[in-house]
Design a protein that fits this description.
heterodimer, A: 322 residues, two-stranded antiparallel sheet, 75% helix, 2% strand, B: alpha/beta, Rossmann fold, 3 domains, six-stranded mixed beta sheet, 20 helices
């Protein structure tokens, strides 16, 4: 009966935008503090560096967010990044045109995502399990392919891409926009985006409303795999090698960025701008800690504390509305 | 001990006995609502006291106050002559007040025995005496006449059986005052009988039972007295022998049945869907036709196969035999997608589990089936999304501040309007409503029935499933009665009387119910 008694609530739609603004304010605040506290933070060199650091996690976090909105999780993205560096390096060294090599690497990411979708939808495996299995086995496959060695990429143009800038902004950051803007349109202005939310909120209700739930889940994991493979290409360009053990623990950073950006691990709540901001907040904290000569081990602790604090306040706000 | 043995020897009605619990001006206000207006009521020890009322009448609030789940705003509760604070659930339990809830609140992954003794485990030197507990639990269960094993995991039992365990659990804790909140909602008739046996037995042992139910027949079968709540006010208490169905309904809703059941008759048009000897999981050999402009009612108890039948029509489950004809053509419906494309719409039984995306906006829920239509190949038209949602909200009078409010923030009745409303813009030809008015207040019910008429006038057909006989009786042009997965009888509009239909739905219980209703 209490359901009848509760008067309808105030609109909460602006919640997402508001939360985004809060995150943006936090990011700006961090930048101001660090500019004042250190002489080197505000230098062009450091800012470019910061944007490069944050960009790759940001792209991973976008893909991850699609998956988390459906109520799933993709633990494999770090391993996919490492694996993709190997694929890209091998293809380029084999003399395949860079453009085609990148395309093939992305297709590998798509294939991995489809495999996850297959495992979840057709085999009934929990997302945590199937992506955990991929996490470990992809690293193994990569090591088998390379015999545990790194592959140096013999293509200077490919490597220069990640070091260069366009209009003074690092190319890697442009890549965030390249992924982020279509992702935003997809998530918030296309029906497939709506279906991601509805499946994460109530798969049965969505199915009965005519939503193809299986296809939606396939789509989420495929996009996450695609983003991860893309980051793999960028990483290969940046470090100039293919190495399957790269990007260790990036899946956790991507999840952390997504969660800091307001994504609910229970599904059906999330955005594109949130994870992007989350990724750059994490990058800023790491960068600032380096400049301030904080022990690198403390950075991990700070990240953990930040996740707890932000998610706690986020939860308070959500509950507070009721 | 079997249930029939108990039925033959009902416990003698106790002498008008002492009061065990008395409410004096008990009142509860929530911000913005007066959920329970001052209630004065005395419960006698050893009576079965039914409480009836529409949803939102204040029954749940009363339970929450009595079990210490929520603090009262004002008033007194006198327990065995002394004022009781009832500030915490723990305090209520210590006094001997327990409740069995509609939804089972036990641990599905633990064994039956572990659940029975949860919080009061038998242990020696810190080691659980598991075998002893299973033995004790089995003894209790056997003693109650339930044919259930104590060593199995609770989740392996049916919901009904779990409910029986929850009831058994409440009885072993020195309970003197036991509240049942719609306990039979998910029970089969046989399980309900076992539960009634248990309730009568508790009564004979002097336990006071509060029995909350929507089902009049159960109230008349079990209770000694009945109290009626309406809009948070106690409008009357009657001895069961001195009242009848009609009086209680009148007290509950304060208006006559005709005012609620809005019914317009249309000349039936061509057949929309026809099932020929359809069989599937949970039902067999069902044939029926739904024509344009007609409501086909499916009546039966929960578990009689009605929901299974319609979800099979809707492509959720595979049919095992038979034929489905859509507008005279043989069709294969392999998924919900196929059904929706043909022009079917299903408003499912459980709006929380199947009907709504609760933590998403009202507008998204309303538009979910039509996103394909309001977007081009790539993008959703923001303008259309707004106008479509706003139109449904206005047409259905959904009480929501904006289309962007979350569905979970709406009341049950308004949520149900979303579940139904999302199909209206879609423009289906056949609407299937599975228990559309469960948990919906009377005003909303009337609105929903008006909506049915509006749909029929546009040439749609409706399948209406209900466990509430008056609803299908007053609305259905053709009424099919289901029992145990079979279609056992068919009636025209108001051509049979209630007793006959009930008997057909229950069959083996006819001698017992025949006398009472």
């Amino acid at each position: 009966m209490s359901t009848e008694a509760i008067p309808a609530e105030k609109p909460k739609r602006n919640y997402n935008a508001l939360f985004g603004l809060t995150l943006l304010a936090l990011l700006v605040l961090l930048w101001i503090i660090l500019s004042l506290a250190t002489s080197s933070f505000a230098s062009a060199n450091n800012i470019s560096n910061l944007l490069r650091q944050g960009s790759m996690i940001a792209i991973l976090a976008v893909g991850q967010t699609f998956v988390i909105i459906t109520g799933g999780i993709d633990l494999s993205v770090g391993a996919v990044v490492g694996f993709a560096t190997v694929i890209a390096a091998m293809l380029i060294n084999a003399g395949i045109p860079v453009f085609l090599a990148i395309l093939l690497t992305l297709l590998v990411g798509v294939a991995i995502g489809l495999f996850h979708g297959f495992g979840i939808v057709k085999m009934g495996l929990p997302p945590f399990i199937i992506t955990l299995a991929t996490l470990t086995s992809l690293r193994g496959i990569g090591l088998l392919m390379t015999n545990g060695n790194s592959i140096s990429i013999n293509n200077d143009a490919f490597q220069e891409f990640s070091r260069n800038s366009f209009f003074g902004i690092p190319n890697l950051f442009w890549m965030v926009l390249l992924v982020g803007i279509p992702a935003y349109v997809f998530l918030h202005h296309s029906r497939w985006g709506r279906y991601l939310f509805s499946v994460g909120s109530n798969a049965e209700a969505s199915r009965l409303s005519g939503v193809n739930v299986q296809r939606t889940i396939f789509m989420a994991y495929t996009l996450s795999g695609l983003c991860a493979a893309f980051v793999g290409v960028l990483l290969a360009s940046r470090i100039g090698i293919g190495n399957p053990t790269q990007a260790e623990g990036w899946e956790l950073q991507a999840i952390a960025s997504s969660v800091i950006g307001g994504t609910s691990l229970f599904g059906a709540v999330g955005s594109v701008h949130g994870p992007l901001l989350g990724a750059f907040i994490l990058a800023t904290i790491n960068n600032g800690a380096n400049l301030l000569n904080v022990n690198a081990f403390w950075q991990r602790v700070i990240t953990g504390v930040l996740i707890i604090v932000i998610v706690y306040f986020d939860g308070l706000r959500r509950r507070g509305g009721k | 001990m079997t249930s029939t043995a108990q039925d033959l020897h009902p416990a003698p009605v106790l002498e008008p006995s002492r009061t065990i619990l008395e409410l004096r001006g008990l009142e509860k206000k929530y911000p913005g609502t007066h959920a329970l207006k001052p209630v004065n009521l005395a419960f006698k020890s050893g009576e079965i006291h039914a409480i009836v009322g529409e949803n939102g009448a204040g029954k749940s609030t009363l339970i929450k106050l009595l079990t210490g789940v929520m603090p009262r705003t004002s008033g007194e509760v006198i327990w065995e002559g002394k004022p009781a604070a009832l500030a915490t659930p723990h305090e209520a339990m210590a006094l001997g007040i327990n409740a069995v809830h509609q939804e089972v609140v036990l641990c599905r992954h633990l064994t039956v025995a572990a659940n029975m003794f949860l919080g009061e485990e038998n242990s020696r030197f810190g080691i659980l005496q598991q075998r002893a507990m299973v033995k004790d639990a089995q003894k209790i269960i056997d003693g109650l006449g339930f044919d259930l094993p104590a060593h199995v995991v609770l989740g392996d039992l049916t919901i009904g059986q779990q409910q029986l365990i929850a009831a058994a659990r409440a009885t072993v804790r020195g309970t003197k005052f036991l509240i049942f909140d719609e306990p039979t909602a998910y029970l089969t008739r046989k399980e309900a009988d076992q539960l009634f046996t248990l309730i009568r037995r508790l009564k004979s042992e002097g336990v006071t039972i509060i029995y909350i139910s929507h089902r009049m027949e159960e109230v008349f079968e079990l209770a000694d007295r009945v109290s009626v709540l309406r809009d948070g006010t106690l409008v009357g208490t009657r001895n069961i022998s001195e009242t009848n169905d009609a009086e209680l309904v009148k007290l509950m809703i304060n208006r006559s049945i005709e005012q609620i059941y809005h019914k317009e008759h249309f000349t039936p048009g061509a057949a929309i869907i026809e099932a020929r000897n359809l069989s599937g999981k949970g039902f067999e050999n069902v044939s029926m036709t739904v024509r344009a402009g007609e409501i086909v009612g499916l009546y039966g108890l929960i578990g009689a196969g009605r929901s299974e039948f319609v979800t099979t029509l809707y492509g959720r489950h595979r049919k095992s035999a038979g034929q489905i004809l859509w507008k005279g053509k043989d069709v294969q419906i392999n998924s919900e997608h196929d059904a929706i494309r043909l022009g079917m719409a299903l408003a499912p039984e459980s709006r929380r589990d199947q009907g709504l995306c609760l933590n998403l906006p009202v507008g998204l829920n309303l538009n979910l089936p039509i996103y394909k239509r309001i977007s081009n190949n790539l993008l959703i038209s923001g303008a259309q999304e707004k106008t479509q949602a706003d139109r449904q909200i206005a047409d259905l009078r959904i009480k929501t501040p904006t289309r962007n409010a979350l569905a979970s923030s709406l009341s049950g009745g308004n949520q149900q309007k979303i579940v139904i409303g999302k199909w209206l813009a879609h423009g289906a030809k056949l609407f299937i409503f599975d228990e559309p008015t469960v948990g919906v207040d009377v005003g909303t019910k009337a609105e929903i029935y008006r909506l049915f008429s509006a749909l029929l006038s546009k040439g749609a057909g409706i399948i209406l499933i209900s466990s509430y006989l008056p609803e299908v009786y007053e609305l259905a042009d053709t009424l099919h009665v289901f029992r145990r997965g079979k279609l056992v009888a068919t009636h025209g509009f108001r051509t049979a009387d209630h007793e006959d239909i009930l008997t057909q739905a229950l069959a083996e219980k006819q001698e017992k119910l025949g006398g009472k209703i």
